[in-house]
């Protein structure tokens, strides 16, 4: 389905929807835009700093198995 057909179908859905459905669709669409902003600039800076250190070889990398073993060994019990 191309973009024009999708837009036409969405327009039809909105036209026939009741108020509660329109509000629900709006919240879904609004939520999808908000989710792209879930990381703060400080989080992104930290991520890119760590990525750069890793690619330069200044920071070790761990396999999934190594990470799981570390977490299991250091897990705090309640």
SSE diagram, text form:
Elements: H1 3-16, H2 19-34, H3 41-56, H4 64-73
Question: What can you tell me about this protein's structure?
Answer:
- With 78 residues, the protein is mainly α.
- 72% of the residues lie in helices and 0% in strands.
- The chain has four helices and no strands.
- It has helices spanning 3-16, 19-34, 41-56, 64-73.
- The termini are far apart.
- The mean pLDDT is 87.
Features:
78 residues, single chain, elongated, mainly alpha
Shape: elongated
SSE pattern:
HHHH
- What portion of the residues fall into strands of 2 or more residues? under 5%
**Share of residues in helices:** over 70%
Number of E strands: 0
Work out the radius of gyration: 22 Å
Distance between the termini: 52 Å
Largest sheet: none
Compute the average pLDDT. 87
SS field, number of helical segments: 4
SS-based structural class? mainly alpha
Which regions are unreliable across 5 or more consecutive residues at pLDDT < 50? none
Put the structure in a nutshell.
The chain has 78 residues and is an all-alpha fold. It has 4 helices and no strands. 0% of the residues are buried.
């Amino acid at each position: 389905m191309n973009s024009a057909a999708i837009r036409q179908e969405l327009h039809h859905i909105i036209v026939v929807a009741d108020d509660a459905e329109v509000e629900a669709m709006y919240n879904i669409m609004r939520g999808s835009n908000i989710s792209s902003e879930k990381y703060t600039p400080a989080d992104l800076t930290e991520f890119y700093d760590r990525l750069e250190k890793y690619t330069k070889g200044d920071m070790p990398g761990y396999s999934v198995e190594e990470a799981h073993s570390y977490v299991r060994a250091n897990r705090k019990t309640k």
